Amino acid sequence: MATTATGSDPVVAVTEQGLADEIGWVERARQADTSAFESLYRLHVDKVYGLCLRMTGNVSEAEDCTQEAFIQAWTKLSKFRGDSAFSTWLHRIAVNSVLGRMRKSRREQDRIQAVTDISPAPETMVDTGNFEDLQNAVDELPQGARHVFVLHAVYGYSHDETSDMLGIAAGTSKAQLHRAKRLLAQQLKKSGYES
Amino acid sequence: MNENQSFDEKLMQAAGALETEIAPERDLWPDIESAIARPPRRRWNIVLAQAAAVLLLIGASSGLTYLAMNARTPSATPPADNTALHYEQASFGDQYMLGPDYEDARSRLKGQLDEHLQRMSPEARVDVEKNLEAIRAAIEEISRALAYDPDNALLQELLLSTYREELSLMMKVDSVANVVMTRTDI
Amino acid sequence: MRILTLACLSLIGATAFAENVDRRLDAASDGLVSISNIAGSVEVTGWSRNEVEVSGDIGKGVEELIFERDGNEIEITVKVPEGGGHNISSDLIIHVPEKSSVEIVGVSADVDVENVFGMQRLQSVSGDIDSEAHAADIEIESVSGDIEVQGDDKKSHTELNTVSGDIETQNLAGEAALNSVSGDLLLVNSSFDRVRLETTNGDVTFDAALSKDGTFSLETINGDLDIKFSDLVSARFDIETFNGDIRNCFGPDAVRTSRYAPGTELKFTEGDGKGRVTIKTLNGDLRLCKD
Question: Looking at CA atoms only, how far is residue A18 from chain C in angstroms?
Fold first, then answer.
């Protein structure tokens, strides 16, 4: 599946045929056709799970978040008007799910312990140059900064979209991004990466 | 610093190159399927904001106790000029109220704001405008959150403080402008 | 620059060149000195004489340097042509009786006050303001200028307020109220009975002590907070944030306020609990520690 470069449309790059399929599935799913919804699930789950995992930093939370996102999408299908891409709409629901499910202290601990769980298998690892530890460093960011960094820098959403999805002001989004970059720079420089 | 800049660019590039699609370790579909096959559960209802007057109790700031003390009967009437308010109006419950004097002061200061800003240097003016914008963004953000959770005392308190901050900033512009106007030494 | 020794009280007519000035007046030992200068700098130092001395350079284009006494009050004003003042820069070096109260108004002038034991009221738009607190009330306001106050660990009442300027204080005692929209607040090496801190976007760093029944109140919308209580802190803690993180080195873990909505709180008592520490934020992250 296509990877997303920062700045380009975060929508999954589907072929025209794929897009037509998707529209058909959405229509049928709206009529409570669960197998059509399953097709939508198969098409989008990796990206939704990736988003949940990066935002929560925890495998079991990410699984819960993914499931809840699709369940909510099912109940809200009538509200999807097609004015944004289905994946964007789905991502918004996933972000809401993450925000709604956040628990602080106990989950923070789980998160730190689960860091090793989330490195993708070597065959899907993308060459990030000097920044192999970037993944880990992002997971150690404080929540607010991590959410913004994941949505904006990894998933390519603009500050307006990011702040809208997270329910924060665009200024906060920018401030959090700045903070994330500063903390990541500290973390990565500590591990010995020179610019 | 050039060093930091190229590090920054590399950081953002690397971030954009991180894998965005990660397959879950197990198939999550079966649980989803059984959840959606069930009859729909009663969900928590989101009560949307009413288009009612914004009413807040004046806090302890010395500049505003004057206004609060002069509010004879705290009233529920909407502010005189609705268009002057850039935020969504929400109802907070009746323990918080903005007296009519507060709204008067706010609209008066807002009305003169541009004129006052003209008298400041361009840099100072930009600074004030940016900060007013930041305050208004905060007001909007808190108001939106309140729409989902109207009884949230923290949000009510923060919104109140932010309105105070806005009034205080406009009063400062007012006083700086008057100083600049009346004194020939400045 | 011509050096002028003046017999009369003020310069008449706009100056063609920048002028050097050096004059004195007798003054009350604890009167009021009011100073205004648009641009340039104002440096005020308290001394043991019952005299006010003004020296320094008056900018080209200044209409008049007013230096007058009226009873217990002394006025020092750099007067410029109406509407034309912003670029005319004067640097004033002023000595005042150390028990004087001082009022300074500037626009872009930087202000520096030392060794003044009376009340201080200092205002600027973009000039930076540096002062010392000595057991008296201090009120400092600016728009974008930075504010720095050095205390002497004696109780005073300090009110500092900016729009975007940063505020830094050390060795304060007694009461302080600091407020900024987007400037950062920094308070260190101090001991407070009452402290009130408020920002919209500015960060707050606090490393100081709170007295046994002291009150500490902090509100921010988006600022990040780094709060450390030095010495024993004995208070009821009431901390609430909407979206921010709470990381505390002492006390119990923070808890969600609701299952369905954002919001985290941390409420507990430390020691006798006679003091109050109240912290409220919307998005700011909080780090709370103690010695």
Answer: 36
State chain A's maximal CA–CA distance in angstroms: 56
Instruction: Tally the domains of chain B.
Output: 2
The interface pTM score, or ipTM, of the predicted complex is: 0.85
Taking the model in full, what pTM does it have?
0.58
CATH number where A144 lies: 1.10.10.10
Minimum Cα–Cα distance from A181: chain B residue: B8
Find the closest chain A residue to C282 by CA distance: A168
Enumerate the residues of chain A whose CB falls inside 8 A of the CB of residue C283. Answer: 144, 168, 172
One pLDDT digit (tens) per residue for chain B, 186 residues: 445 567 888 889 999 999 999 999 889 998 888 888 754 432 222 211 111 122 222 233 333 322 222 222 233 333 333 333 333 233 333 334 455 666 777 777 888 888 888 878 888 899 999 999 999 999 999 988 888 888 888 998 899 889 889 988 988 887 777 665 544 444
State which residues form the domain around A61: 1-118
Q: Which helix or strand (DSSP H or E) is residue C141 part of?
A: strand C138-141
Q: Where are the beta strands (DSSP E) in B3-78?
A: none
Provide the shortest C-alpha distance from residue A131 to chain C (in Å): 26
Its domain, for residue B115, covers: 62-182
For C194-209, the pLDDT digits (tens) are 999 999 999 999 999 9
Residue B48 within a domain:
no
For C48-60, how does the pLDDT look when each residue is reduced to its tens digit (9 = 90+)? 999 999 999 998 8
**Last residue in a domain, options A118, A142, A169:** A118
Residues B151 and B91 in one domain: yes
Chains contacting chain B through 3 or more C-beta pairs under 8 A? A, C
Two tokens at B131?
Answer: 């900060």
By the CB < 8 Å criterion, does C32 face chain A?
no
Contact residues, chain B, for C78 at CB < 8 Å: 185
Cβ separation B21–A171 shorter than 8 A:
no
Cβ pair C164:B120 closer than 8 A = no
